[in-house]
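Practice problem 4.
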């Protein structure tokens, strides 16, 4: 019997992407002498899609003297310096692995920035594997994304697997389609009324981890 697998989304699940981006946008617009309205526009663009092409648009719109490559590199560096993961969540990832779980991160996005965040927060040292969509052009909610994430953890999709994330479509719908049980991190929101619900709803990643740890204890007792 294979070890149980749990895959975590990264942004607004293990780390606070919204808060980090807001802090970055304030610093970025101040550095380049942009207005408050520009700050809101830059934040919206990067929140929707953070790729080098996004910074080509920003560079052109605001006539910035730096190259797109320089802006992207600075963005990755600055975000890595700002982002954090709560100590309780980091401890929880280690607790899951100690309890016999295979623990992975399954995230959409550009590999440069996602890997930078994982290294800076210490998450990458506390999981068995990471898959970023850009690395193989497989985005959540595609089942192939979850299968590749499982492979990075040295396992395959199957009974006992879980997906934990904040996005109803990408994480919960996609995880369900991939045969995984699901935990939705609400971040203070209500579940969309017309969507099939997840297996569990929790306020944050630490509560999700505690739920999984209880599940592993119950599973061990059942097996015994």
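Answer key:
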């Amino acid at each position: 019997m294979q070890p149980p697998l749990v895959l975590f989304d990264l942004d607004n699940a293990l780390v606070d992407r919204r808060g980090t981006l807001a802090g970055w946008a304030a610093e970025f617009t101040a550095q380049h002498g942009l207005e408050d309205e520009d700050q809101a526009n830059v934040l919206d663009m990067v929140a929707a899609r953070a790729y080098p092409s996004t910074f080509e648009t920003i560079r052109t719109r605001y006539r910035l003297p730096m190259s797109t490559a320089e802006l992207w590199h600075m963005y990755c560096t600055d975000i890595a310096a700002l982002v954090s993961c709560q100590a309780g969540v980091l401890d929880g990832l280690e607790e899951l692995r100690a309890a016999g779980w295979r623990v992975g991160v399954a995230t959409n996005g550009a590999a440069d920035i996602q890997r930078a965040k994982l290294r800076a927060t210490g998450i990458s040292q506390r999981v068995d594997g990471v898959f970023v969509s850009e690395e193989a052009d497989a985005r959540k909610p595609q089942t192939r994304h979850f299968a590749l994430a499982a492979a990075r953890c040295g396992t395959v999709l199957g009974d006992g697997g879980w997906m934990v994330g904040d996005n109803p479509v990408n994480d919960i719908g996609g995880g369900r389609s991939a045969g995984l049980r699901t935990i939705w991190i609400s971040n203070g929101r209500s579940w969309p009324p017309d969507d099939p619900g997840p297996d569990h709803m929790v306020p944050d990643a630490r509560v999700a981890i505690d739920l999984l740890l209880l599940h592993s204890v119950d599973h061990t007792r059942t097996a015994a």
